[in-house]
Please model this.
Amino acid sequence: MRPGSIIYFFREAGKSLKRNRLLSFATITTVAVCILILGFGVLFTINASNFMNHLESDVQIRAFLEQDLTASQISDIGRKIEAIPGVGSNKFISRDEALQQMQKDFGRREYDLKETLGKNPLPHTYMVKVKNPREVSQLAAKIKSMPGVYKVNYGQGTVEKLFKVTRWMRIIGIIFIVLLLVGAVFLIATTIRLAIFARRKEIYLMKLIGSTDWFIRWPFFLEGILLSSLGALISIGILAMAYGSLISKIDNLFFIQLVSDAGTIRNLYLVLLGTGAGLGVVGTWISLNRFLKV
Amino acid sequence: MLVQFYNVSKIYPNGAKALDDISIQIDRGEFVFLMGPSGAGKSTLVKMLFREELPTRGQIFLASRSVVRMKRSDVPKLRRNMGIVFQDFKLLERKTVAENVSFAMEVVGASSKDIRTRVPEVINMVGLKGKENSFPGELSGGEQQRVGIARALSNRPLLLIADEPTGNLDLNTSQEIMELLFDINRKGTTVIMASHARELVRAARKRVIMLQNGRVVDDSPNGESLL
Ligand SMILES: Nc1ncnc2c1ncn2[C@@H]1O[C@H](COP(=O)(O)OP(=O)(O)O)[C@@H](O)[C@H]1O
Ligand SMILES: [Mg+2]
Model:
């Protein structure tokens, strides 16, 4: 491409922007609204997913041990559990510790549990965290089959339901975002089509003079990218302010932990900016091709 | 031969039969009229030259290259060999005379040096010196058509195609435009002009291809059939 052509593309894009102020404004607004909704949608999805990860990683296996084991047998079982592939961490809780914990949780200081019960009825326990929460039932079965373990507990049934729910939530989140994107492309293409329609005679003339499709496309692409990036920047600004104040308010109100890691948020904004520019390109492409068929 | 049509027929998607088994040949340097009443198929024939329409049947060659079988990406090259003049001028209202002409050179990627020398040259050629900075709205119909012709000439075409170039002009102005086209033809450019203005065509004493209902009904080298 000759440098003269590049100057021509920018000059044409600039002229068109100046001429079609109303349509430029409409395009910027459309992109801004779309990216804003998309941004909120993605933030919601990220947070929901984060929350679900939390729930899932809380899942752990309690392995209750038989009563009359020697200390070496107990640590033997611990080592065997840790050797199972897929096991993350493993913590031993002795029966005494368990009783103390219970005392702390339920005792109202009026009764001493140990005295009331006479003997400590609680077993030694291993608290096993798994690397992948989805393998929890398999690993629990393996641990249960070990000699010395008389029972395992991981919230059977509830865990499976939780996974079903989180899976559907993730699928719905992705569908939601895809639908938003398709809607945004359609809306932006329609707005850009108006701008192109206003210049259809010029495009027809260029085609008949012998201009290539790319030569005609470039100024429109530049215009589309510029306008939609601007729209995306505006919505990112609004999003950053809104989410920032949400984080500072919610953090000391609820137990919910919002995603606030600076790197993640910055990447999200960059992706939104890219998506905005991309929407401009795709919208221009769709709208323009019809007019190039001469 | 510059232009060759072999058994060309055109049926539009709505079923209208615009051309019916047309075979014609046009040599380099000729000046040819396409004559016939409205609806005879003149515009359809002309549009096939620059491939705005494709024939339903038949073959078309320009300088021995098939226009029909040409790849889509080669169409711009084909069109750069021709200049097109329209009945309604198709000038860009927001551009001056000079800009309308330079636009045509810019969009085919001419160098700015070439544009700087060529634009005044063609504006002179069509007799619009002094009007370079006027806008189309400030010009008479005849002057606007001169801009259209200057634009068509700017890229030094082999072939000038004019579809009813005088259709919107009065008789005197039409004759001036005809003189300009003859002049261009004398300098070596092949000209194909569609028109239904019988008087104008008869006075020219050039080759006339008569179309009626999409068929060639007469082809006379000096317009004898109109006498
Ligand atoms: N785009 C089109 N779609 C359908 N029919 C058309 C189209 N263009 C022309 N026609 C028909 O083809 C015939 C020839 O038209 P045209 O080539 O414009 O004739 P002329 O230029 O001699 O007046 C007419 O019957 C006209 O109605
Ligand atoms: Mg016609």
Observations:
- Chain A is about 70% helix and 10% strand.
- The longest helix of chain A spans residues 158-197.
